[in-house]
Amino acid sequence: MTKRTAERAATASSMAPAVVEQDRPKKKSRRMKVLSTSKLSAQQKQIYESNASNSPLLRLAPEIRNRIFSILLGGKTIHVRSYTSKGSHIVIHSVCKIPGHSEETANTITRHNALLGAAEHFDKYEPLHSDCVSFHAPRLPLETMASMLPVLLSCRQIHQEAALLPYQLNNFMCPSMEWLGSFLQTLVPAQAHAIEDLTFSNTSTHHTQTFQKLAKTKLRGLKRLTCFVDFSHYTLYWGPVGPDKIDPITLSLLQFKSPALVTVSVLPYKNDNSIRSWRDSDPAPITRESMRTWALGVEAALLAPET
């Protein structure tokens, strides 16, 4: 190419219309904090100062306010359920109408598996809590988690002090790990990290890399884990899986192993005393002794120090 030809090509190139990249829709950033605003306007600051001096509640000592907030927002069992609508996971919450039932059932199962009495009947989760969780035709007025939260909307300072207490001070009860995953994905990190007490009312098998990562990153503050396992449908002799030859239920529960865990209760039971293994090659029945031994092993594995 001659010098003149090169100059003409450069001139033509400079005169050509510039190619403008189409504006791509900006991905909406997800709020990562409970309170996203880090700075206060002059008006907000004035409201803060006025509330601190004029509000009977905010004039109380912080420890007294925390006690009041704990009574209002904590001490309950929250049922968590999920369903799919038009390709989206819809998470719903409701407050348990049978307070203390889980503890009573756990004590009964513990006595049963410890061979301290004859076989007892254990109420199934679904019919017992139908009034707590039915959103279609509840026989009793349904109390949702939202009914606990209006106090957080009263003013910004109260929200800042108490916004995480509903997650920290309540027990979250979920029938399945899949529904728990849907629930955790709706929470910002601060809310998920505040959860300390979790109960699986009917522990199922669900082990995936995605869910394991979700449990590890979201449930950093989990201190108490309770797992009811109905062996009317599962068996201790279910073929082991994985490189360590661990049964599927244990493998699923080990996803919740965390240094923060303080208490783990694994509570296996069965309603049909004649149930046997699904495999013809292993006809041994599931006994209370075998369930108790299995449960103690799972609890020890979950509480063992990280290696």
Automatic annotation (TrEMBL):
InterPro entries: DUF7730
Ranges where the record places region Disordered: 1-38
Domain of life, source organism: Eukaryota
Residue stretches making up the DUF7730 domain: 53-209
One Pfam family per UniProt: DUF7730
Residue ranges that the Swiss-Prot or TrEMBL entry lists as coiled coil: none
Name by which UniProt lists this protein: DUF7730 domain-containing protein
